[in-house]
Amino acid sequence: MAKEISVVSQYPSKLQVQGENFDPKNLVMTTAADNGKKESNGAPKDTYPAFPGWYADVSWPGEAHIYKMEKIIFQGKSEFQELLVFESSRHGKVAILDGYIQLTENDEFAYQEMLTHLALCSIPNPKKVLLVGGGDGGILREISRHSSVEHIDICEIDKMVIHVYKKFFPDIAVGYEDPRVHVHIRDGIAFINSVPEGTYDVIILDAFQPMGPIAEVLADKCFLESVAKALRPGGVLSAPADSLWLKNFVVADTIANCKKIFKGSVNYAWTTVPTYARHFLSNYIYLSKF
Amino acid sequence: MAKEISVVSQYPSKLQVQGENFDPKNLVMTTAADNGKKESNGAPKDTYPAFPGWYADVSWPGEAHIYKMEKIIFQGKSEFQELLVFESSRHGKVAILDGYIQLTENDEFAYQEMLTHLALCSIPNPKKVLLVGGGDGGILREISRHSSVEHIDICEIDKMVIHVYKKFFPDIAVGYEDPRVHVHIRDGIAFINSVPEGTYDVIILDAFQPMGPIAEVLADKCFLESVAKALRPGGVLSAPADSLWLKNFVVADTIANCKKIFKGSVNYAWTTVPTYARHFLSNYIYLSKF
Fold it and tell me: What are the PABS domain coordinates in residue numbering (chains A, B) (predicted)?
């Protein structure tokens, strides 16, 4: 059983804490209910159980996926966010960022591969790629597999994330070892705005949690225009999208929004990542600029 | 909060029961760890938390999906199994059979549609269909949508299941209202063995929990020979299959086994059913006899 687990909770005052053996230090709890999922509005927020020694990934009130924390490996706080890494029973190491599950060693590859390869394979010989977020390094690892690529910029705001992944997830952070990779510790939007027009063949976004809910980010005209400007004509943007299983399915709206800025094709694809099963079953949107 | 909830657990003696407000009557817990998932062998079985008022769908030790039981609607035991129906916070009514989650109103359609339509659409004008299990009626509902079908037999061993679904899940059990449906309360294997050779155009299996683990049932030569005998030449069998996310991925073996008996094509297809996300992400196998 983990020994040093802090409370990572959005509703600590409303937790139903009970049990003589209960120690608030043993509770790790989060919720994604307010993370842009409008459908969760109106649902009661005071209905969470307590699971000492388990991490609860609360999709919305009344439902959660829980993982036993066999061992807490890292816990730290940067100026931007809080990161927790634990060893799970079945999925290897699990990373929790600001209470949200980021990845498990078991299935991270599916997410990283889907965000990378459809985009890079959709145009011939991509040479210059920008990754916004993605500090774990997994998408870098996948980009590095494309021999046509000559230069990879990664703009990650939080160096703690990079440090922790390099230390505890070497198979993911291996992406940093490619000499084509250039790391920029900066805010992604500021970085995109700073690069000359038409710099990149491909831009991959993996930074929605700090930037905001998926649907809102992809509805932000100014942001999309900045990305489109940073891409060369014919360049491609790849980003996570919402799930076809969400009750307020907004992908049609997202595609309509994106089409106003990206004059090329806008495509929606999806795969399964068990870790994200309830959240978005990993859907992706690919946009090209013409 | 539910008032009359019994303990439905495979490991009641090993539960870590704690908390002054804890009432064993409020615990509903199950595990699918021993349901043919060999990969779970060797994992500790004494590592479940207690969640009063929540149903825990334990994929394997150390991981579970939990649903808050807003209201217990039905609880009963037949000579074959125990059935629990509760109202969940987000997924409508949820049915639990012998501790295993059967379906939620939210996404049952995806499972029923996939088991039915690929099979019935794979041959021209299917006329006679057998459903083994599927007592909820949802697959009947889907079969009924095919106008070429003249006769539908359902062989369900447990009339309690039919009764409960008709009473509490009218949108699913609506399948029974079709006049082409003939209900047989019998053991499925005995029924298949009793019908004349070449009786059916399509046989759909939805009875694996009572029959055994998916991989084992589809590796049983005698059973597959019985099914093949009951099908007309060119007829099709449709059945759930294992997930591509299971660590001991056995679908290739299953297909190889089935090909020995079914001389036609053997195809594997999959969709997503959030309820089954960890278990098998709803995969299906379609076999035709030539």
Answer: 52-289
Which candidate from B19, B63, B245 shows the least CB-CB separation from A68?
Answer: B63
- Which residues in chain A have Cβ-Cβ distances shorter than 8 Å to B43? 89-90
Same-domain status, A154 and A63: no
- Give the CA diameter of chain B: 64
In a domain, B5, yes or no: no
Q: Do A49 and A172 lie in a common domain?
A: no
Note whether residue B7 is domain-resident: no
Residues of chain A with Cβ-Cβ distance to B107 below 8 Å are: 245
Which of A171, A206, A220, A253 does the annotation list as catalytic? A206
CA closest to B64 among chain A residues: A66
Contact A51 B49 (CB under 8 A): yes
Kindly report the nearest CA distance between residue A254 and chain B, in angstroms.
22
Q: Give the least confident one: A126-135, A163-172, B115-124, B211-220.
A: B211-220
| Residue A280 pLDDT > 60 | no
Cα A73 from chain centroid? 20
B117 and B143 in a common domain: yes
More confident residue, B21 or B232: B232
**Residue A123 belongs to domain with CATH number:** 3.40.50.150
Could you give the number of structural domains in chain A?
A: 2
Report DSSP letters for B134-192, one per residue: -TTSHHHHHHTT-TT--EEEEE-S-HHHHHHHHHH-HHHHGGGGSTTEEEE-S-HHHHH
The answer to whether residues A152 and A271 belong to one domain is yes
The amino acid occupying position A196 is P
Identity of the highest mean pLDDT range in A8-17, A99-108, A189-198: A189-198
In the stretch 37-56 of chain B, residues with CB closer than 8 A to chain A read 43-44, 47, 49, 51-54
- Does B176 reach chain A within 8 Å, measured CB to CB? no
A172 lies in the same domain as A91: no
Domain end call among A104, A139, A157: A104
Residue with tokens 């037949």: B78
Q: Is A113 domain-assigned? A: yes
Residue A61's closest chain B neighbor by CA?
B89
Pick the closest to residue A233 from A262, A274, A276, A260 (CA basis): A262
* Cβ pair B272:A89 closer than 8 A: no
> Are A128 and A223 members of one domain?
yes
A66/B49 CB distance under 8 A: yes
Residue A277 has pLDDT above 50, yes or no: yes
Q: How many CB pairs under 8 A join A and B?
A: 100
- Quick check: is B2 in a domain? no
Distances (CA, A) of A97 to A109, A164, A176, A248, A255: 18, 12, 20, 25, 28
Q: Find the catalytic residue in B206, B220, B242, B253.
A: B206
Are β-strands A283-288 and B28-31 bridged in parallel, bridged antiparallel, or unpaired?
A: unpaired
Cβ distance B66 to A70 less than 8 Å, yes or no, reads no
CATH of the domain at A49: 2.30.140.10
A95 and A112 co-located in one domain: no
pLDDT at B230 over 90: yes
Tokens 């059983």 correspond to what residue? Answer: A1
- Separation between Cα atoms, residue B128 and residue B216, nearest integer Å: 27
Domain extent at residue B228: 108-288
